[in-house]
Amino acid sequence: LGHSVKVGDVIVFGNKNWSNSWRVLAVEDTRVLLITERVVDTMVFNGLPRGDSQRPLDVHAFYADKSVDSKPVRTDNLWDKSDMKKFLNNDYYINEFNDHDKALIHDYGFGKVFLLSSEEAKEYFYGVNDRAADFTGSSTTWWLRSSITYGYTEYVACVDSYGRVVDEFDDRVGINTASRVGVRPAVWLKIK
């Protein structure tokens, strides 16, 4: 890597255990942000999955409960204690990257392997079509790390199958943490 890569490039990085095709989202002086080109798997964010379906859920049914007399509150603390973060920074990191790859990956505060926040998903993609991601041949919903508390329920933001960031958009606040949704890991690589 180095300054020869540019935003939008697709590079090969890591092993083929999940997917080793990564898109360059940002190039800065000393680092490069990558995200997997496709959804690598479907998983719950926290806890046990609802039902036994291997197919990810679509986001259409996840509306805020209007009977609750409160407004959505952003609480990005779910990520730090989530099963998703543990999986990405243990099993995924250990099995997906060799020692050379691991030496390039840097933790800037969210873990060595992380999910984008809703703000990053809006910033680093050109629009909904660019944000949509494939899993087993069709576009699917994928997790973000931003969380929202609405009433007594915690939700996690996501990108729906149409590429829209769902985080209080048209009253859709996100997905329950025990839903099985697509995973699209991201990493920052040091280039100097």
User: What is the number of strand segments?
Assistant: 14
Unreliable runs, pLDDT <50, ≥5 residues? 51-61
- The portion of residues forming beta strands comes to 25-35%
User: How do the strands line up in the largest sheet?
Assistant: 1-2-3-14-6
Number of helices: 4
The end-to-end distance, rounded to whole angstroms, is 10 Å
Order of helices and strands: EEEEEHHEHHEEEEEEEE
Give the CA-based shape. Answer: globular
3D architecture notes:
The protein is an alpha+beta fold and 192 residues long. Helices cover 16% and strands 30% of the residues. It has a five-stranded antiparallel beta sheet with strand order 1-2-3-14-6.
Would you summarize the structure shown here?
The chain has 192 residues and is an alpha+beta fold.
Question: Secondary-structure blueprint of this entry?
Answer:
Layout: E1 10-12, E2 21-27, E3 31-36, E4 41-43, E5 73-74, H1 83-96, H2 99-104, E6 105-106, H3 118-124, H4 128-131, E7 133-135, E8 138-140, E9 142-150, E10 153-159, E11 165-166, E12 175-176, E13 181-183, E14 186-190
Antiparallel strand pairs: 1-2, 2-3, 3-14, 4-13, 5-9, 6-14, 7-8, 9-10, 10-11, 10-12
Task: Provide keyphrases for this structure.
alpha+beta, 192 residues, 4 helices, five-stranded antiparallel sheet, 16% helix, globular, 14 strands
